[in-house]
Amino acid sequence: MSTPRFTTKELDRLRELAAEWGKIVSKRAFGDDGPGLDVDFRTMEQIATAAAQGLTEGALQQMLQQQARKVPRQYPCPDCDTLCPTEPHTRALTAQGAQVEQAERIAHCPACRRDFFPPLRATLGLDEHAFSSSVIQCIVTAAARFSSFRDATDAVKMTGIDVSESQVRRLAHEVGQELIEARDRKVIEHRRRQLVPRTEVIPEAVVVEIDGGRIRTRAAGAGPGVHEAQNKEDKVACLATLKGPTFVSGAPNHPNRSGARVACAAWCSR
Questions:
Q1: Residue 19 predicted with pLDDT over 50
Q2: What does the DSSP assignment read for 119-174?
Q3: What 8-state DSSP symbol labels residue 254?
């Protein structure tokens, strides 16, 4: 089952609805007359941030609980297909701007003597880690961009996400290994011609451009400044597609009535 996608207009309407609730927050915090002249912007920002966090937590909590109620009371074991009863289960989950209790169901198979979760986590894009997929993306991106896991951890914490350095390191290594395995699978599939074409329309003509040059390099990890400067050759490749009008008796080789020459081929993408 594919995940329903909301359009930009639908999301904008939800944002406008939440913005109207801001009037209620202001009234609850300062009364009908609003903040006085002695209230600074930082105080207003703190109130708005707390309200936004509460709205995020409440909405996520409600949607997770409603979804968990739709999981069957009995679910087949993924190993032996034995129909097993499911029981309510909750776990702490860190999302963007919120800490929620994820409601789900867990089952125990007496034949296999193992516990398992019905495939609700896969639908949600979650795994055994107590982070949402967007939080994991934020953590892994920081780990890739900063020179140390400590700096990456500090950067992630500045966004309001509570994470330890060991968690950042473990997630970076796991996701990195997954990317390596995915890359290797694609190499094998490419050699076996099993990769699905990226485009449904085969271009009329293709062009491969290759050129070489020289670049100035320096030693990596040598600190500030330029160390062991060298001139090295680089190779640059460009893939392009061509398209143009077709003619029954060949392309005309003379200007048309407007004085412009008819082009036989034109760049469409690079």
A1: yes
A2: THHHHHT--SSSB-HHHHHHHHHHHHHSSSHHHHHHHHHTTT----HHHHHHHHHH
A3: S
CA-to-CA distance for 243 and 265, rounded, in angstroms?
5
Quick one: tokens of 132?
Answer: 């949402």
Would the pTM of this model clear 0.85, i.e. be above it? no
Query: Quick one: pLDDT band at residue 207, thresholds 50, 70, 90?
Result: confident
| Structural tokens at position 2 | 């594919």
What is the rounded distance in angstroms from the CA atom of residue 93 to the CA atom of residue 136? 12
Residue 247: predicted pLDDT: 67
pLDDT at 266: 42
Contact 31, 76 (CB under 8 A): no
Dist CA 54 CA 24 (whole Å): 13
In 8-19, which positions are buried (b, 16+ CB within 10 angstroms) versus exposed (e)? eeeeeeeeeeee
Is the four-CA dihedral 211, 217, 221, 223 of positive or negative sign?
Answer: negative
Report the Cα–Cα distance between both ends of the chain, in Å, rounded. 35
